[in-house]
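Q: Sequence in, structure out?
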Amino acid sequence: MNIESYASISESAHIQGVALIPRISRNHNLYTKEELARFHGVTVPLNWEHNPDKVIGEVTFQYDATSETVYYEGQITDSSAALLAKNKLLYTSIEATPTSVQRVCNGASDCFSMPFGLIPEGLALTETPGVPETSVN
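A: Exactly. Output:
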């Protein structure tokens, strides 16, 4: 399944878009649809580049089982971050802690991790996406 990412930032700094889909991320984690469902209805801080000292707002995740996609919607409350986000190509990256991780290898050099029991903790606006299908326009 190919999901085109979309995101938008309104003039009032309202932000929404795709946070995560079931696939292998840039840090070699495979997120299953069962783990994605854990994000449904969870509200988390929105920060800048995974810096917990730079919280710039808040978002709420919604999981859509039909598209197997975690969407987010929220508000950028920091005015300088809102202005920068409106004028720069940005992406999103989830922040979550697993209760366990299984390593899976298809040969010696083709390995990835499968996190289980994810606890959503935040969403970061970044210059590099956690999963390429996420973006902020």
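Strands lie at 7-9, 14-20, 43-48, 51-64, 69-76, 91-97, 100-105, 111-116, 119-126.
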